[in-house]
Amino acid sequence: MSEDVPFFTALASGAVAGVSVDVALYPIDTIKTRMQSPQGFFKAGGFNGVYRGITAAAAGSAPGAALFFASYETGKTFFNKNISSPAGAQMAAATFAETMACLVRVPTEVVKQRMQTGVYTSMLVAVPDIIKKEGVMGLYSGFGITVMREIPFSAIQFPIYERMKLAWKNAQDAPLAPWQAAACGSIAGGFSAAVTTPLDVIKTRLMLGADAEGVKYTGTVDVVQRVIKDEGAKKMFSGIQPRVMWISIGGFVFFGAYENARKHITMATEK
């Protein structure tokens, strides 16, 4: 993505990429969420019903990913003109894009994760019940920590992704095929996922709302203190294996689908 990408091309390509990865790899995400759950993996559902909550994921994946890539490509064009460092421009663009995408992503995650751990059985039950009990802002539980997780994740991932693509392109002296861009996304995503796992654990706990005894979490600091005290520091890295696996495989599917869709949309619009 070294060249400028039109807004609507990025929007449509992002939507295709989001749906592709979220639906294809949903069971791994469910396993990761249950490993991070305060009641423990098996009490949260174990390996049963691993597609529980997929309706919420599917509903939010297309608009969330579309908004991310449209914001990223638009932001990258702007920041490339105002920041001399390419990596700095990519970090700034990714930060802007993640913040925008979280407006859609967080309500989706709240509903999805509560369905994954058995709190609700359907999205149609979950959404009105959360609003009734917690207000509209209940759908945005964990918004701050989600942004705090996504910004460092993308600030690490995208410069690595862009740098790897550029190096590979220069080495072969030809534009990359979609599968090559996908490989770059997979490596960059897996590394970023491992580094930011503790933030993901905090986000999951805040979105689930309470510990195994039903005592509500009051914020990020409260989660960290209680998890370390009650479950040990290692719990802050719970779910790292499925998280890295999901994002590594997902990165390949996500960036591959994005680059392939972008290529075909660009060709179609140029005819």
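(ticket continues) Second input and output from the same batch:
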Amino acid sequence: MAPALTPAQKKELRQIAQSIVENGKGILAADESTGTIGKRLSSIGVENNEDNRRDYRELLFTLSKDSNIGSSLGGCILFEETLFQSASDGTPMVKLLQDHGIVPGIKVDKGVQPLPGTNGETVTQGIDGLQDRCKKYKAAGAQFAKWRAVIKIGDDIPSELSIQENAVTLARYATICQQEGLVPIVEPEVLCDGTHTLARCQEVTEKVLAAVYKACNDHHLYLEGSLLKPNMVTPGMQCPDQATPEQVAEATVVSKCSRCTF
């Protein structure tokens, strides 16, 4: 079992988590991989190199103080390259965010890989070496982390194997982050691709969340020092019976409350 968090560690994690979401603030995801941002740059005829990627992120982070962006934006998730970059004037990217009162975060997962023994399901990679990376990220100014697990709905899926493997991996990631002073965003994303109904998505989402928080409890995660990033509960994009916004809202809220017990 990982060493228990000290009262001081718990206090820091709780304060970071609260500062990110206080007063309804949001989180900006600026953690596009090199490949993903390359597609955006190529669409406007810009070469995908480190300087251009820096200029793009710098454009996002150099709003004037008068913009008061920090009143609406609590955190910003960075790609590893950006965390260690400085703007063209030498100011660290992290400081640009901090000057607006925005908490810097870092994407720590390494993407998904096929899960053997399943019908096209996946599990997220990145546990190996995560503790050492978290130490480095914390020293560079990151205060929270993000890890995304992917759950598919289809014929006979998600399998119990997929749900459990992703739940345990999320719990391990989250516990490691807390040991190193990073607030973990726990993100078990049930994908909206497919023909499934609203009821089926709600059923799967509830089952996934119950498994994830059972695993978090087993791994002694400090819940007050973590954040949940849940999916919206919607019919599959190819489902002929689409739902109203009110139905989606109700199913999404109910799914977060009905089965998340240990």
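Agent notes: The CA atoms of residues 127 and 173 lie 7 Å apart. The mean pLDDT is 94. Closing as not reproducible unless the customer responds.
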